[in-house]
Amino acid sequence: MKMHTETIHKITIPTPFLVGPVNVYLICGEVLTLVDTGPLTKEGEKTLIEQLKALGYQLADIDQVVLTHHHPDHVGLAGLFHSSVLIGHRYLRPWLQKDKSFFDQHRKFFQEFYREHGVPGETIQKVLHASSVYMSYIEPTDLDVIVMHGDQLPGHPDWTVLEVPGHAQNHIMLIREQDQLAIGADVLIGTISSNALLEAPMEEGAERPKTLLQYRKSLELMKSLGVSSVLPGHGETINEVDQLIDKRLKGHLDRAQLIKQILSTNRWSAHEISYQLFKEKHVKQPELTFSETFGHLDLLLERNEVKMSKEDGIFIFYNE
């Protein structure tokens, strides 16, 4: 077996988000590659610079930055790397550019989507405002290199790019061929289940991506590849990969069955189901709980275990 000549350093950066600190990774080989950056905060920038310095590097030394997906805790500081090559998925570009027309399209989609699923207008505005604040933790920049599923990571012939949508449409991970080590960002986290967040279609009028179904396929892909260990975006290294994947997949089915039970007592909108599941958490974090609920409704619909109809302009789910 070929010996690894590269070293990988984990850098942990504080975030202002509920998920807590984020891990970014420095791959030191012939090319110096940073995977993700941390959020656009003074504390995040200070920590990143200090930890790079402790390893003997400055921002200008980084040859390239791989951005795993568009969430601000992972890409917020990408704009700092003026002399580095920025690498990511094609769907990352409008998020990173903070493209106004793209953001307007997203806002328009969710205003209608939430309304049709019974979410009150006040809650819709709260969710949209929270999304706007969240995206303010990204400094606008652009990609230099677009990578796709199966591509070799530039400068690192041992590493392959995998597209793993679900948590985000533009999510990629890296896998090292010799030992199946993965740098996974938010695809698999040890302490919490990654939320398959609702997203609008990338093109106006296209079908909404069914993010939980995508996420389950991404987990099954990881299992089929025999990933040995995962360096995650949050928390500690995951070594029992298959066991955790099985736990996550089973958790999805268990949650779906709970929703099915809720629907056995009444006909509900997705908003009402989300409140039944999460109670006060749904009031405080509707954007997260609604994604969780709707992903599992997609799963139940896919399995023909619940039905959906539109009544007085609102989609209603039922189990008959």
Structural write-up:
There is one protein chain. This protein is of the alpha/beta class and 320 residues long. The protein has a domain at 7-97 and 137-248: Metallo-beta-lactamase, Chain A, CATH 3.60.15.10. Helix content is 38%, strand content 19%. It has helices spanning 42-54, 72-75, 93-97, 100-116, 121-135, 211-225, 241-263, 270-278, 280-284, 286-302; strands spanning 7-13, 22-28, 32-35, 64-66, 85-88, 145-146, 152-153, 156-163, 172-176, 181-185, 229-232, 307-311, 314-318. The strands form three sheets. The protein has a six-stranded mixed beta sheet with strand order 1-2-3-4-5-6, covered by helices on one side. Strands 7-8-9-10-11 form a five-stranded mixed beta sheet, with no helix packed on it. Strand 10 (181-185), helix 6 and strand 11 form a beta-alpha-beta unit. Helix 7 crosses helix 10 and helix 8 crosses helix 10.
